[in-house]
Amino acid sequence: MRTDTALHTFAARTLNITFDDGGDINWVDADGKLWVYNNGDIAWTLASMALVWIMIPGVGFFYSGLLRRKNALSMIWLSMMTVAVVSFQWFFWGFSLAFSETGSKFIGDLKYFALRGVLETPSIGSTRIPSIVFCIYQLMFAAITPILAIGAVAERTRLWPTIFFVFAWSTLVYDPIACWTWNSNGWSFVMGGLDFAGGSPVHISSGSAALAISIYLGKRTGWGTARLAYKPHNTSYVVLGTVFLWFGWFGFNGGSALSANMRAANACIITNLCASVSGLVWMFWDWRLERKWSAVGFCSGAIAGLVAITPASGYVGAPASVLFGFMAGTCCNFATQLKFIFGYDDTLDIFASHAIGGIVGNLLTGLFAQSRVAFYDGATVIPGGWLDHHYIQLAYQLADSAASLSYSFVMTTIILWIMHFIPTLRLRTSEEGELLGIDDTEMGEYAYDYVGLEQEIGHTLEINGGEEAQTGGREGHHHLHHHNEKTVDTESA
Description:
3 strands, ammonium channel activity, mainly alpha, Ammonium_transpt, transmembrane helix, Ammonium transporter fold, 3 domains
C-alpha cells in the first residue's frame, strides 16, 4: 500500500506539478515550459468567485422588493434557477464558446466542450492562475448577467419558457460578447477596447436585452393608468439586495485583476467610492421632487454607480471615480423617464440602470483610463485614454458599446420571436395569471402566506358552531375582507 507521501508524489508527477519554497505551484507543459501559479492569486480569485455568487440572489431580493408581493417569490426563484441553468450551460459549451483560444474574433469553438482539458493549464485571463480557477470565476459573470436581463419579465411571464430563454440567451448573446471583449482573439480586445470587469458583456448586454423583452411582452395590464399600484412591496428586500450586490461587487471588480495586487486594491476602493457618490446623487435628485429621503432612490443610485465603474475599475484612479459616480447617478436617474416618453413597460428600470450605466462607464473609461493605473499589477500595459493623450480610445469604447447594445437587442428579439411561434415556449402569461400573480399561477408557493391565511380563517368559520364563535368569525371575516379590499387597491393590475 502506498503511503500518503507516495500518493501525493504520484499525483504531482501525473500533473507535472511541483511546489517551490514559497508554496507556489510549478507546472510544466508538454513542451517543457515552466508555468508558476501563485497560491495567493488563486485564493483571491476563488474568494472573489464566491463574492460574485452572492450577488445573484442579491439581484433576486433587489428585484423582488421592487415588485408587488404576489410576484415576490418567483423573482427570487428565477435568480437561483439562473445559477443552475447557466452552470450547466457553462460546463456544456459556454466556457468554450467564450474563452477557447482557437475560435474566431466573434465567438470561440468547442475546444473545451464539457470542460475537456480545463484544469491545470494556464488560463487565457492570466498565466498566474490555472484554467480551472479562471473558468469558475468567469462562470459567475455568465450566471449573473441573464438574471439582470430577465428582471424585465417580472409580473407577466411564464416560468418554463424563461428557463429555456436563459440557456438560449447565454449561448447566443452573452458568450459572443464575452468572447469579443475578453478573449485575446476577440475583435474588441484586439482593437484595443478597455473593459475591466464587464461593462459590455454584463451590463450593456443585459440592459439592452431587458429593453427588447419589455417591448416584446408589452405592458402589464393596467400599467400607466394606476401607477400607485406598482410601488415596491418590501423596501427592506431592496436594501438587503443592495447589500449583497455592493458586498459582492468587490469580488466582481477587485477579483477581475485575477491577482491579489495593488490593481485589485485600487479597484475595490474606487468601486466603493463610486457607489457611494452615485447613491447620494440619485437620492438628492429624487429629493428635489418629493422633499423626502428615499431608501429605494439611494439603493438604485448605488447600483448605477457600481455598474458605471465596472468597465473602468482597473484603469482609473480615485478622483475619476467621483465623476463616474456623479454621472451615473444623474444619467441613470433621468433615464428612468424614458419608459414614459416612449411607452414601454420596463418593470424594474433595467435599461436605465444597466444599459445606460454601462455606456456611461464605457465612454468615461475612454476619457479617464490611465496607463499608470493599469500597471499597478506590474504587467498590464495600455496606451490609456484622453488623460494620457490617447484620443482614439473614446472611439474604441463607443464602437464596443454600440456593437454590444445593438447585437444584444437584435439577437434577444430574434430569440423571443422564435419562442413566440412555439406555443410551449411563449413567454407572456394569461391575463388571469397576471391578475392572480406569478407566484400563485406558476409556483403555488408564496413569499407571504396570505393565501394560507384566507384558507385558515375560512376553515375556522366552518368548525365554529356557537353564536359567540360565529359572531367572532364574522368579525374576523369582515377584517379579512377589508384587508383584501386594500390588496385589490395596491395589487390588482
